[in-house]
Amino acid sequence: MTVLADAAFRHAASMFQPKIRKWASPGAMAAALDHTHRQTAMLDLIDRELVALFDGDDHDRLMVFCPPQEGKSQKISRRTPAWLLSHDPTLRIGIVSYADNKAERWGRQIRRDILNHPELGITLRQDSRAAGRWETEQGGGLICVGLAAGITGEPIDVLLVDDPVRGRAEAESQTYREAAWDWWESNGSTRLSSRGKAVLMMTRWNEDDLAGRMEKREPGRWRIVRIPAIAEDRDPLGRHPGEELVSVQDRAPGYFRNLRTVRSSYVWNSIYQQTPTAAEGNLFRRADFRYWQGMPADPARHGVLAGQRVDLGGRAVALDDCWRFITVDLAASKRTSADYTVASAWAISGDGDLILLGRNRGRMSEAEHWDHVRPLQQRWAADTVFIEQSFISTTLAIDATAAGIPVQPLTADTDKITRALPATSRMKAHRVWFPAGVDWLDEWCDELASFPSAAHDDQVDTLSYAARVVSAHWLPQENAEQVAARRAPVDDGVIGQAYAAATGGSGDLDFMAIDY
Fold it and tell me: Are 341 and 363 in contact (CB under 8 A)?
């Protein structure tokens, strides 16, 4: 968080500080007006953060993340506007959500609170009857809109953003994420007045969501308060690691621990821990990652790879004995925001393990694709390049073919998550190996662990395609006992009768004579 030292900003921020305050916090006001109101340690912390935001001058933007149904929206979207207006009825407050009706619900409730509680000291204009837009006699008021509608009119002094996306489907859509960021850049942030303060609360479905982008693109500007359901290190509430959140819902002890056992880590970490990228991974779990080490070459081998060997957890594998290929995920743009072009070189061992040999990643034009892939092909003597069917006519395919390298098409016939499932199964079986010690290993592993919430998934795509290639092109090798067992005659009478009917013979079928 960056401390803003600008004198004009400090003067503007000080305008939020009332000379006389009837209630110390939104929670204190809610307790005085509503005997059913409950405070928890989490809500106390949010109260303190709100007071610090509106009274202080060291930051002007706040993010709050915590489990659902724990009172954060009631605190921030309902109680905070009334608390602020009760001390300064000139404030212009905006509430923005994913839809108009969600935002207007808060406007209707706040207006009802004002009318039912004259002790707030807020007087509404007689012509202000709309649920989503009303004014005070002093010129302040509230506007409630959906993200698509945006805020128009006069500048906003306080902007409260409450759930800018509807749920996981929108959060994982690049289109919706781009729309949310475009709203913030072109509308939300531009409507703030010189004394403007902003609060964002949302479920962290995706690390590239609105909050994630704000944190990356406006570093130090936002104060971030994340309160997980189960405490981790450096807990904001001072809990010990593993300690549960005391819920406003009077949940029984052990509720969150029990919930964690029946939720996937993908869901649990995003909704309840507010960390869309779990340290242990989501679909691809770090505990299942396996790493190969290089071994001295075998001088007795004279293949194209000169006897290179790798150690797969104590098993020596000669790469000359493996089939080697490349999978490519193409992007045809150099824009910084564009996807990457990724080429990954693989080997399939005799017993079906998938070995990542090397990887090239970058943003480039279509004309550069083959120059990006060729070093991998030459380094590992890969004999086939697999790319999506839709790119089969690109310069990569043309140039690779001209160089004598077969190009095979892959069909992207399902969504990315479904395509990744065969790879996740192989990972869980510990049949996928990554090179230990390469400088890009963290980048590779972090993207896998973040999938499908990461900003990019180009490397994951190459792994998903490699797993499909293994399934289509590799058959398990059989030892002598397995071959003998498979060829052993089965005398159930039916086979012999079928053979006799087809050949006119009456003898037994000679399984050993069949060419397998």
Answer: yes
Range of the domain at 456: 286-473
Backbone phi and psi for residue 117, each to the nearest 5 degrees, phi listed first: -130, 80
3 state SS of 245: coil
Q: For residues 195 and 13, is the Cβ–Cβ distance under 8 A? A: yes
Residue with the larger pLDDT of the pair 500 and 441: 441
CA dihedral 12, 14, 19, 22 (to 10 degrees): 100
Tell me which amino acid residue 307 is.
G
The pair of structure tokens assigned to 270 is 């995003």
Residue 143's CATH number: 3.40.50.300
Q: What is the pLDDT of residues 72-125, one digit of tens each?
A: 999 999 999 999 999 999 999 999 999 999 999 999 999 999 999 999 999 999
- Confidence category of residue 481, pLDDT binned at 50, 70, 90: low
**What total number of domains does the chain contain?**
3
Structure tokens given for 307: 């006897």
- Specify whether the CB–CB gap between 202 and 210 falls below 8 A: yes
Residue 281 placed within a domain: no
* 412 pLDDT higher than 90: no
Residue type, 300: A
One-letter amino acid of 512: M
Average confidence (pLDDT) over 333-352: 83
